[in-house]
Amino acid sequence: MRSMTGYGEASQQVRGTKITIQVRSLNHRHLDLQLRVPREYLAFEEDIRKQLRERITRGRVDLFVNRFAVKGTERALELDEPLLRQYLGSIKAAKKKFRLAGDLDVALLTSGPDLFRVRELEVDAKAEREAVFQALGSALRKLDQSRRREGSQLAADMQLQIDHLKKTSAEIEARAAEIGTRLAKSSGAAKEGNGAPRGDRNGEAQVWAFKGDINEEVVRLKTHVAALAGALRESVPVGKKIDFMLQEIQRELNTISSKMPQLEVVQLVLAGKERVEKIREQTQNIE
Q1: The whole model's pTM is what?
Q2: Is residue 39 part of a domain?
Q3: Is the residue at 242 inside a domain?
Q4: Range of the domain at 188
């Protein structure tokens, strides 16, 4: 079982460029991917999304890809030699024409506009693509480990609630049998006395006879609870499956309290519903 909450981070370095990927997942009803990638990697952003969809089925996923030069290798400073030659030629011509004194020196390089330009180095997309997906794979493995750790804690708490549900189901079954026996005796005594005892029209016997027993509901309830326990041991995403099972358990509990409204049964049903709600809260965190 995996939680929907987790974090993973990994880095790769290639040809003076460091690539760092951070991925964080949070609770969400569906799969919601939010990516932040440098413009150099926009060409394979969809491939990144595809890998995320293959690994994650539910939750909000924020993925950040950072790219930066390790030693300032992103840009190069270049001297415009053709322009410098024009500067030198023009200055020499001016000196000769106007008989100017003085020598040319390196100071010209700092005073001449546009003699230097900064050039962005071309990105080796093929080499960096491989590094990006290596870092992505590592980050996703760490994310999965994080989600599994929290998932195991959630599973332990949910198993505790399921154990209470099993106990409650058994107690409802036992109480129903006791009430059935008691009502049967009450009904038999009324027949032997050639009339119903006073108050019987509104008593337990009439309710039992009119609404019927709850054997089928108890059987289904115990079946659903057992299936719920089995879902915790599955390795595939089970959040939606568990949510559906909780709806079925809730339905059976409602039917039981409706068909057998005796106080002792209703109290057990309420206790069962409390456990269902606690499991439902935890399910909001399960993938």
Answers
A1: 0.68
A2: yes
A3: yes
A4: 148-283
Instruction: Quickly list H helices, 80-201.
Output: 81-98, 107-111, 125-192
> Is 1 part of any domain?
no
For residue 194, is it within any domain?
yes
Q: What is the pLDDT along the chain (287 residues), one digit of tens a residue?
A: 899 999 999 999 987 789 999 999 999 989 999 999 998 899 999 999 999 999 999 999 999 999 987 765 556 667 777 887 888 888 888 888 877 777 767 776 667 667 777 665 566 777 889 999 999 999 999 999 999 999 999 999 999 999 999 999 999 999 888 887 877 777 666 555 555 444 444 444 444 444 557 889 999 999 999 999 999 988 889 999 999 999 999 999 999 999 888 899 999 999 999 999 999 999 989 99
Strand partners, 66: 20
> How far from 42 is each of 46, 47, 62, 216, 222, CA to CA, in Å?
8, 10, 16, 58, 53
Measured between alpha carbons, how far is 158 from 148 in angstroms, rounded to an integer? 15
Residue 246 one-letter amino acid: L
- Residue 227 to residues 35, 240, 250, Cα–Cα distance (Å): 37, 14, 14
**178 plus 265 within the same structural domain:** yes
